[in-house]
Amino acid sequence: MLTAAYGINQIRSKIWFTLGLIFTAFAARLVWVLWIDTPPASDFLFMYNAASSAAVGDFSFNDTEYFLAWVYQMGFTMYEALIISLFNEPMLILKLINVCVSTITVWVVYKAASSVFNERSGRIAGFAYALYIPNIMMCSVLSNQHFSTMFFMTGCLAAVAKRWQTSRSQWLVIGLCFGLGQLFRPIGGIFIAGLAVYLLLCHLLPQFSRRKLLVSVSKLTGVIAVFYAIQLLVSSLFMQAGYTEYPLSNREPYWKFMVGLNTATDGKWSLEDGKYVLQFKLGEERDAAELAVVKERLQDKAAVAALFARKFVFFWGAKDDAAMWSLGEMNLPAIQVSAERIEGASYAVMSLFGVLALIALLRRRTVSRSTLFLVLLLGYAAIHLAIEIQARYRLDIMPAFIILQSYGVYWLLQRVRKIQLFKARTI
User: Fold this and answer.
1) DSSP code per residue over 55-124
2) Whole-number average pLDDT of the chain
3) Which residues are registered as beta bridge partners of 250?
């Protein structure tokens, strides 16, 4: 990885580097999508089938338990319905759009790392994300994570990019990106909370003043206002059009916590829990039943602490299951095993560089704009101690992880270069 990082930083022209980065990211994803024809499965199958019905004006799927409880899935479902209604080969088109969206995210990661660190770190982050195997493999999966990751990371880029620091429209762009990301995947609250902590640590505490307080609160308020305005607008449009009876929201808010605190399944999806809650009517009755289970599972503090430790190890240490989602139905075990090995090795190396990055950043003893990505990473890890976990959920925050680890690669390259220069002088 060090050799590759050194090589890409020898390209003097930013334009040529950017073109090479985009071509590499796009080509890798396009080849995968054209080679691997992954059929939709699980939640993605539910949404695709619902989208196929919606495309011909049939919204009877809204009466199913899935869409009655998790109305927020309508955003991604209606996007798919639009594509299905416009194209003869909608599944291929949806996957090609995944390729384009994922490629844009690669560029965003490059620019974000360049903004918070330097151009060399940005190039390292860009190529690391461009060639990150799970991200490539998931392009053949009809996942809602592609759009959400792009929008959330673009909002983060607007928050840290120097050109936006004095722009009055910064809060508008961030709120718009976070709001659009929420339409595809409901994790916007994590990013808004991360932005709030970032503003506190990087803008208020270093040199506190009433003016800075006013500016920070105004920006955060603007972001939240735009964020919720988008949810309200789209919800209203969907309800008026007859797509759904309810706003885009989670009508079963305790389910994720109930499953996440199940010691028997280590916080993963539970069939037994699913059967149990179906006894109760969706709404107040089911909420009360699920909340009672949550309180019961929180009583044994020692068991909860042990559960959190196991969940942390699994969520951040287990192999990524992108290979399973992409290849599980394809009967290609050799390719799946090879992909998992490559992912495991690359993830281990990036984790090592992530540790080096944290050490290097702590030695600087200054709060920088990279704090946003560290806060998001820590916040994402913390919330998943309490809620349901799947290995694929790690993909949502991998851009932040890769941005941070890029500085570890850069830092080590600088150390190696200094040692080489010192040896050259002493010869």
Assistant:
1) HTT--GGGGSHHHHHBGGGHHHHHHHHHHHHH-SSHHHHHHHHHHHHHHHHHHHHHHHHHHHT-HHHHHH
2) 90
3) 70
Count Cβ neighbours within 10 Å for each residue of 77-113 and write b for 16 or more, e otherwise: bbbbbebbeeeeebbeebbbbbbebbbbbbbbbbbbb
Residue with tokens 């993605």: 44
pTM of the model: 0.93
Question: First and final CA of the chain: distance in angstroms?
Answer: 28
- Residue 10 gets which letter from DSSP? T
- CB-based burial, 275-302: b 16+ in 10 Å, e otherwise: eebeeeeeeeebbebbeebbeebeeeee
246/67 Cα distance (integer angstroms): 10
Alpha-helical (H) ranges within 282-397 are 284-297, 301-317, 322-327, 333-364, 371-386
Instruction: Kindly tell me if the per-residue pLDDT of 1 is higher than 70.
Output: no
Q: What residues contact 7, with CB distance under 8 A and at least 6 apart?
A: none
Return the pLDDT at 425.
64
**Percentage above 90 pLDDT, the chain:** 68
Question: Is the Cα torsion angle 46, 51, 56, 58 positive or negative in sign?
Answer: positive
Nearest to 100 by CA among 88, 83, 117: 83
Q: From residue 204, give the alpha-carbon distance in Å to each of 170, 198, 209, 247, 372.
A: 17, 9, 7, 36, 14
Residue recorded with tokens 């929201």: 249
User: How does DSSP classify residue 246?
Assistant: S
Looking at the predicted structure, is the pLDDT value of residue 342 above 70?
Answer: yes
Token reading at 64: 């199913």
CB atoms within 10 A of CB 127: 25
Backbone dihedral region of 300: left (phi > 0), alpha (psi from -120 to 50 degrees) or beta? Answer: beta
- Average pLDDT on 318-347 reads 87
pLDDT over threshold 60, residue 196: yes
Instruction: List the structure tokens of 49.
Output: 């089938």
For residues 319-326, give the mean pLDDT.
87
Residue 7 has pLDDT above 70, yes or no: no
Rounded-to-integer distance, Cα 407 and Cα 121, Å: 6
The type of residue at 170 is: Q
The total number of residues written for the chain in this structure: 427
- Residue-wise pLDDT for 156-187, tens only, equals 999 998 776 667 788 999 999 999 999 999 99
Residue 426 has pLDDT above 70, yes or no: no
Averaged pLDDT, 36-43: 90
